[in-house]
Design brief:
CATH topology of one domain: Penicillin binding protein transpeptidase fold
Strand content: 5-15%
CATH class of one domain: Mainly Alpha
Distance between the termini: 100 Å
Number of helices: 19
Largest sheet: 4 strands, mixed
Number of strands: 12
Shape: elongated
Radius of gyration: 30 Å
Length: 511
């Protein structure tokens, strides 16, 4: 038998050919990127325009008639420009720590930050904020619009690089600290120091600097006069710890600064403001919707849903109610919300007895703070039972009853007067706000279905149903007064839900 050797196929691998292909790809990519940047750079403003900026215009917030101004966000910015030498190191380092830790080593852009922001944009399918250096933020504030678009982001990067070639790092930081908004119409670090602490920027202490550096990220949200003071202080302490970590201060200095009662140093809020809790609620929404720059400099007219006559009545009712509660229950605060059931429009909002009274944390909007709703949750439970086939005439036994809980314990609810009434119909049990029949109704209706009903009617809390048991019907959960009022508005509107509305229309400076 003849055997012929199998000839192996020889594969020729050309490194030279592969290198040419790689070179072509690199050159093509470079040319593509260069073309994109050249395209967007063709009509960019000059960085030198930083010294020729247009003055901002006043934004006004009105009641529903447009006849009463609730608040003016001054377009004539509170600003006193100061030289770099008068800005203390504490505010420079605190700002760099929170806004751009590689400021003195980057070239106007931070590749890792851009990459993170790009990944976030892809995941969320929209152009979000973030990933911007101090130089980029200065460009955005001074030379570009605040629109969240890819083209604007590319222009921002190009201008940031150009800006770095024309100005030193200290000059850029000085322009930034004189330009950035800190909230309450304070623009620039000098105005911020005067507004919040009644001093010059050069007199700021370490703890004060860390607090002011915490504001520009979201001036309305972190406002010392707003509803998120605890988060502001937490951000201030984070800034101090990070400054120590980066070597700007020692950990001992950070700990000493954190022990200061920073809130006691803040000046009382002095700007003229009407319906302050409602205004701050609207202002925070607008800031999230349009951005702080547009809100505080855009000359907008905001027509809200507030009924000025009802608001005055509500404020008087809150004062009277607070005085009575002080006598009867030793309670020092009250809140009130009024909503039109047919539209969901907020007609009145009073978040505390006195917005300017720090002793009762008056600036905190109690209408937005989660609280136990007490028996006001009962209608949602009975409504759920009715949806399951029970009727207002369904009979319940109002007798002393022990319920077994998930943890093996016994739950024994009592009526408010300690008495039991035997057999009665659901409609009467609800009308009398009896606790024992209400717990039995929740047992029949189910905790999760009852929470789902509440959500459909306007409640936005109670998002972990497994946390709650049968005490939910007696107030064993947390809801906000604003949500609860809106849910009751749904009841008043024959079960037709309308989302909460606080703004009727927004006009720009051109009308």
């Amino acid at each position: 038998m003849w055997e012929f050797p199998v000839k192996k196929r020889t594969t020729y691998f050309s490194w030279k050919k592969l290198g040419k292909i790689f070179l072509v790809i690199v050159l093509a990519s470079f040319l593509a990127i260069a073309s994109i940047f050249i395209w967007f750079a063709r009509d960019l403003p000059s960085p030198e325009k930083l010294s020729h900026l247009t003055l901002a215009q006043t934004t006004k917030i009105y009641d529903r008639t447009g006849q009463h101004i609730l608040y003016e966000i001054h377009g004539e910015e509170k600003r006193t420009e100061i030289p770099f030498s008068q800005i203390p190191d504490s505010i420079k380092y605190a700002t760099i720590t929170l806004e751009d830790q590689t400021f003195y080593s980057n070239h106007g852009v931070e590749i890792k930050g851009i990459a993170r922001a790009a990944l976030k944009d892809i995941l969320h399918r929209k152009v979000a904020q973030g990933g911007s250096t101090i130089t980029q933020q200065l460009v955005k504030l001074s030379l570009l619009s605040s629109k969240k678009t890819l083209s604007r982001k590319i222009k921002e990067v190009i201008l940031a690089v150009e800006l770095e070639q024309k100005f030193s790092k200290d000059q850029i930081l000085a322009m930034y600290l004189n330009k950035i908004p800190y909230g309450s119409n304070a623009y620039g670090i000098e105005a911020a120091a005067e507004t919040f602490f009644g001093c010059h920027a050069s007199q700021l202490t370490l703890d004060e600097s860390a607090l002011l550096a915490s504001l520009p990220k979201a001036p309305s949200y972190y406002s010392p006069y707003g509803n998120h003071i605890k988060k502001l202080v937490a951000r201030q302490k984070y800034a101090l710890d990070q400054m120590a970590k980066l070597g700007y201060i020692t950990q001992t200095q950070a700990e000493t600064a954190k022990k200061e009662n920073i809130l006691a140093k803040i000046k009382p809020f002095s700007d003229k403001i009407v319906a302050p809790h409602f205004v701050m609620y609207v202002k925070e929404y607008l800031e999230n919707e349009y951005g702080n720059q547009t809100l505080e400099q855009g000359g907008m007219k905001i027509y809200t849903t507030l009924d000025w006559n009802l608001q005055k009545i509500a404020e008087e009712a809150v004062k009277e109610g607070a005085d009575k509660n002080k006598i009867n229950w030793n309670a020092s605060n009250v809140a009130l919300v009024a909503i039109d059931p047919k539209t969901g429009q907020i007609l009145a909002m009073v978040g505390s007895k006195d917005y300017f009274n720090a002793k009762i944390d008056g600036q905190v909007n109690v209408a937005l703070s989660p609280r136990q709703p007490g028996s006001s949750f009962k209608p949602f439970v009975y409504l759920t039972a009715f949806e399951k086939g029970f009727t207002p005439e369904t009979q319940l036994w109002d007798v002393d009853t022990n319920f077994s809980t998930a943890d093996g314990k016994t739950y024994n609810p009592k009526n408010y007067d300690g008495k039991n009434r035997g057999i009665l119909e659901m409609k009467n049990a609800l009308a009398m706000s009896l606790n024992v029949p209400a717990v039995k109704t929740l047992y029949l209706a189910g905790v999760k279905p009852s929470i789902e009903t509440a959500h459909k009617m306007g409640i936005t809390t109670l998002n972990q149903p497994d946390r709650y048991g049968l005490s939910l019907v007696l107030g064993g959960g947390e809801v906000t007064l604003l949500d609860n009022t809106n849910a009751y508005a749904t009841l008043a509107n024959d079960g037709v839900y309308h989302p909460k509305v606080s703004i009727l229309k927004v006009e720009d400076s051109e009308g």
